[in-house]
Automatic annotation (TrEMBL):
PANTHER family: HYDROLASE, PUTATIVE (AFU_ORTHOLOGUE AFUA_7G05090)-RELATED. InterPro entries: 6-hairpin_glycosidase_sf, 6hp_glycosidase-like_sf, UG_Glycosaminoglycan_Hydrolase. One of its GO terms (biological process) is polysaccharide catabolic process. The keyword DNA damage does not apply. This is Glycoside hydrolase family 88 protein. Keywords: Hydrolase. SUPFAM superfamilies: Six-hairpin glycosidases.
């Protein structure tokens, strides 16, 4: 393994310092005096967070960010500011923020249950053995599995899809699968491993195999955002984008979901084709980076001035997982360089703990310059902003570096 100091090049303060913890704690603490736990959750920010209802797909990421810091405080206390924040208070905040999420576990109208539940409830179960957390995960996994169609070989991602030009509303005609769904498979694999329910892991593997067959453009390894399957034949009838620049363009966050999702699928199955998919997607991702090393929101957009930092962070986590499985240093080096280049471009380090333990902060997010959806036909079009899952994956990258022993 390369020397940590050479890899990180002084990034430890940004990855693990008290300013990073202060930023998350400032948002978390702001809701602790409310009479009831949150039912709205942070999503994007142009300084201060905009909140969405609990049934929105990003509701699990901020509670997951707090849980990522709980994990760090327990497993890696050397890299947590124990003198600034009592871990018991942090644990209380993590549970408070996640209190109402279990009510979403019975939903069968969404594929995003992995995004909602894995960031918090896997960590709580692994750290504390909380049976209630495992029960929530089991319920959510079984709900997600109801969306699997044997003929198509995938779980349905969206029941409907709308923008200013197209509308898909008939589930009998259209079966929409998005590349993002790869990152929900971890929920199925995890619950299968904990309960022995191999039906769940079989569904996850079949979904990954079908995605590998139909979502990629070969031989370059860019990918489509959405594949629409014919319900009768089980074959694709259309491939297009919902959040990228255009249907045949390379949307960078779509690639990041592919890198991370297939790296995770390989970790559970050890199927070589999944590892190759993760590696090839990552190699294509890196081949399209500009000199600054920060991904454009879409690699084929006319200008690369609009970035997507969330794509960088999810890809970096995927690269660390590839390194974990292969022990090939080049993936570690590429992952850390991606983080390093991104942090040079964006890091809001102005937060600080005050003498009374509260937080002063100008912005809610650690990282700016993500792009939620810059498609010209998007109903909700937002670009160049902070984004809750960019921060979440940044924290997850830090924890993975500690887990891998890159930082001691």
């Amino acid at each position: 393994m390369p020397a940590a100091e050479n890899l990180l090049n002084g990034l430890e303060d940004q990855l693990f310092g008290e300013l990073t913890v202060a930023k998350i704690w400032g948002v978390a603490a702001s809701k602790l005096q409310d009479q009831n736990p949150p039912t709205e959750f942070p999503e994007h920010s142009y300084g201060k967070y905009q909140y969405n209802p609990i049934d929105y797909w990003t509701s699990g990421f901020f509670p997951g960010s707090v849980w990522a810091l709980v994990e760090r405080s327990i497993k890696y206390p050397k890299h947590f500011p124990l003198d600034k924040l009592n871990p018991v208070k942090l644990q209380y905040a993590a549970r408070w923020w996640a209190t109402n999420l279990p009510g979403q576990a019975t939903r069968t109208n969404t594929h995003d249950l992995g995004f909602v539940f894995c960031p918090s409830f896997i960590r709580e179960y692994e750290l504390f053995g909380t049976q209630e957390s495992l029960d929530v995960l089991v319920t959510a996994a079984n709900s997600l599995a109801t969306r699997f169609d044997e003929k198509i070989g995938c779980m349905r991602s969206w029941d409907e899809s709308h923008n200013k030009e197209i509308h898909f509303t008939d589930k009998k005609k259209d079966f929409l699968v998005i590349i993002d769904n790869m990152c929900n498979l971890d929920l199925l694999y995890y619950v299968a491993a904990k309960t022995g329910d191999l039906r769940l892991s079989t569904i996850a593997t079949k979904h990954a195999e079908t995605t590998l067959k139909n979502h990629f453009r070969y031989p370059e390894w860019s990918c489509y955002h959405v594949v629409n399957y014919d319900q009768e034949t089980g074959e694709p009838k259309a491939k297009f984008t919902h959040q990228g620049y255009e249907d045949e363009s390379a949307w960078s966050r779509g690639l990041s979901w592919a890198v991370l999702g297939f790296a995770e699928a390989y970790g559970w199955t050890k199927k070589q084709q999944f590892l190759e998919a993760a590696i090839n997607s990552a190699e294509y991702f890196f081949s399209r980076l500009s000199e600054d090393g920060v991904p454009a929101w879409d690699f084929d957009a006319p200008s690369n001035n609009i970035k997507d930092v969330s794509a960088a962070m999810a890809t970096a986590l995927g690269l660390l997982k590839i390194y974990e499985h292969t022990k090939d240093n080049k993936f570690l080096e590429k992952g850390v360089k991606l983080v390093s280049d991104t942090l040079k471009f964006t890091y809001n380090g102005e937060s600080r703990f005050t003498t009374d333990g509260s937080v002063e902060s100008e912005k809610d997010t650690l990282l700016d310059h993500s792009t939620m959806n810059n498609n010209e036909h998007a109903i909700r079009r937002h670009a160049d902003h902070g984004l809750v899952y960019a921060d979440y994956y940044f924290l997850a990258v830090g924890n993975k570096l500690l887990e891998l022993g890159v930082i001691i």
